[in-house]
């Protein structure tokens, strides 16, 4: 499979939610009157303008989802594995909820540095991989790869 | 506005009753409340009621009698019962009516509540990713609170232990046997840091309250329990609520703080004057956080409160004397009125094995639910 085919076989879980690799960022909405930032960007474009959020931040709170959420609405794998979930404070912007990845459950700590990544969630009816956002610990050693 | 009294209370046991619909459980409670008040359904000048998942409450006229009374359906999430009570209270306090009924009932399937994003104005992807799960919110609010204020898992376990201890003496409770603290702490982890015994379960049940004017209450010889405050508030800016894809960096107040302050002002008393309290305990951490949000202690003091047993029946402020949601389960439409039922029971001295000693004079109840709503009532004897 060529690189183009690999990319075209992926589809974001929703449009306007995040930018693509290699430097994925969530897209929030800035209230044009108050300056308040929310995520996701509301559809009301008379009030909110899209704004790319900082890629990295700190873990604000977390838990482990230990039972499979009901479907619908959940579309993750039938063969359920518990996953971590948390809120990450993106500095001077907003605190965003999302899955946590690449960290052992017993290593999760409030305040740890996290950054936005993309990861597969499920396969759609056309065989494409549905991609969504998640937060992974910032690996200082790998930052200059 | 004139004073309003609770002149009759009725409850259908919480838990699972396969043979009765939610509506029938509501009617059972209504009959019990009417008997308690010494009144007939035909005496009711109005009704307010609701359920979250068991249909329109006004169809209760089919069960109770076609008297033509005005009946208003209430659908307000976890505040459904509290909202019905406020409606009934205003209908009498305004001077328009002398006597009427507030009721709530529900019957939910087993397992976690199955919320869909569109019902909360959320995009589909939020549910598709597995975040439309109430237990996550409770766990994450609690996780941060514990880290900030030094609350331990031991304290979470003690809340659940107390709930089951109290429920042994509450005939309407669902889980009526004591559970050992070690079993609570070491049971299956559901959503860290909360184990199976620290969460309430969706359930079934019904509650009805008969409200009357002072004049009518005197006539009936049932002028003991008075409503001093009944308040509902929605969320302020910067609060942290169920089903929030994002929250503000600048943290704000909470709906419970607003409802609590408004209720104390309306009643003209403060938290130090309350003798018994029923606080929303969807999970054991919620009771802990709500102790502070309702003004009964400062953040972090709960650790000592629970270690010393100060919120037990014989403590300085008994909390959730019938076992709360943890032991009674949560039928959404009935839960808030169960708290008021329990408070009236305590003020009337009918608590038997769970009776708060020293003839309590003031009783406080608090509900909290999605999407950021809180209701508080204060009763006085």
Q: What is the number of strand segments of chain B?
A: 12
What form of chain B results from the Cα inertia axes?
globular
Tell me the Rg of chain A in angstroms. 16 Å
- N- to C-terminal separation of chain B? 19 Å
Alpha-carbon distance between the termini of chain A? 25 Å
**DSSP strand (E) fraction of chain B?**
15-25%
The largest sheet of chain A, given as strand count, sense and whether it forms a barrel, is: 6 strands, mixed
Most extensive protein-chain contact, per-chain counts: A-B, 42 and 35 residues
What would the keywords be for this entry?
heterodimer; A: 145 residues; mainly beta; 6-stranded mixed β-sheet; 3-stranded antiparallel β-sheet; 9 strands; 4% helix; 41% strand; globular; B: 381 residues; alpha/beta; 9-stranded mixed β-sheet; two-stranded antiparallel sheet
Walk me through what this model shows.
The complex is a heterodimer of chains A (145) and B (381). Chain A is mainly beta. Helix content of chain A is 4%, strand content 41%. Chain A is built from one helix and nine strands. Chain A has a six-stranded mixed beta sheet. A three-stranded antiparallel beta sheet of chain A has the order 3-2-4, with no helix packed on it. The radius of gyration of chain A is 16 Å and the shape is globular. Chain B is α/β, with parallel strands linked by helices and 381 residues long. Chain B has 13 helices and twelve strands. Chain B has helices at residues 22-37, 61-64, 80-93, 124-128, 134-149, 153-167, 181-186, 214-220, 255-267, 284-293, 302-308, 324-328, 332-347; strands at 4-15, 47-50, 71-73, 99-107, 189-191, 194-195, 204-213, 225-234, 246-247, 276-279, 362-369, 373-380. In chain B, strand 5 (189-191) and strand 6 (194-195) form a beta hairpin. Chain B is globular.
């Amino acid at each position: 499979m060529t690189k183009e085919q690999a990319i075209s076989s992926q589809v974001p879980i929703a449009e306007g939610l995040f930018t693509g690799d290699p430097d994925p960022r969530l897209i929030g909405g800035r209230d044009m009157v108050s300056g308040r930032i929310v995520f996701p960007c509301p559809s009301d474009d008379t009030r909110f303008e899209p704004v790319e959020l900082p890629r990295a931040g700190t873990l604000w709170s977390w838990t482990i989802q230990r039972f499979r959420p009901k479907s619908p609405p959940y579309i993750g794998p039938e063969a359920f594995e518990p996953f971590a979930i948390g809120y990450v404070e993106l500095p001077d912007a907003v605190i965003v909820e999302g899955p946590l990845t690449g960290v052992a459950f017993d290593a999760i700590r409030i305040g740890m540095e996290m950054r936005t990544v993309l990861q597969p969630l499920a396969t759609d009816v056309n065989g494409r991989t549905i991609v969504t956002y998640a937060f992974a610990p910032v690996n200082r050693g790998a930052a200059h790869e | 506005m004139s004073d309003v009294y609770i002149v009759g209370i009725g409850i259908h046991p919480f838990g699972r009753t396969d043979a009765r619909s939610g509506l029938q459980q509501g009617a059972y409670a209504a009959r019990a409340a009417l008997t308690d008040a010494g009144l007939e359904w035909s005496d009711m000048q109005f009704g307010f009621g609701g359920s979250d998942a068991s249909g329109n409450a006004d169809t209760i006229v089919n069960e109770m009698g076609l008297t033509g009374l005005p009946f208003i359906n209430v659908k307000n999430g976890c505040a459904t019962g509290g909202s019905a009570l406020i409606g009934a209270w205003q209908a009498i306090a305004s001077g328009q009516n002398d006597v009427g009924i507030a009721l709530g009932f529900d019957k939910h399937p087993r397992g976690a509540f199955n919320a869909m994003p569109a019902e909360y104005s959320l995009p589909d992807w939020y549910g598709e990713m597995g975040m439309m799960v109430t237990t996550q919110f409770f766990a994450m609010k609690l996780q941060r609170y514990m880290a900030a204020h030094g609350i331990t898992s031991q304290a979470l376990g003690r809340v659940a232990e107390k709930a089951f201890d109290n429920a042994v003496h509450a005939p309407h409770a669902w889980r009526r046997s004591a559970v050992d603290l070690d079993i609570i702490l070491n049971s299956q982890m559901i959503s860290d840091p909360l184990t199976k015994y620290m969460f309430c379960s969706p359930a079934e049940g019904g509650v009805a309250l008969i409200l009357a004017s002072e004049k009518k209450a005197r006539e009936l010889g049932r002028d003991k329990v008075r409503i001093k405050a009944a308040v509902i508030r929605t969320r302020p800016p910067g609060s942290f609520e169920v089903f929030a894809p994002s929250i503000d960096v600048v943290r704000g107040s909470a709906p419970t703080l607003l409802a609590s302050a408004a209720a104390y002002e309306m009643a003209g008393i403060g938290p130090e004057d309350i003798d018994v309290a029923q606080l929303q305990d969807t999970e054991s951490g919620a009771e802990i956080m709500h102790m502070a949000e309702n003004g009964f202690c400062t953040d972090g003091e709960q650790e000592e409160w629970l270690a010393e047993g100060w919120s037990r029946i014989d403590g300085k402020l008994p909390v959730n004397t019938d076992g709360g949601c943890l032991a009674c389960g949560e039928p959404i439409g009935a839960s808030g009125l169960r708290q008021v039922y329990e408070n009236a029971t305590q003020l009337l001295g009918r608590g038997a094995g769970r009776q708060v000693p020293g003839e309590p004079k003031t009783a406080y109840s608090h509900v909290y639910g999605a999407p950021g709503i809180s209701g508080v009532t204060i009763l006085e004897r």
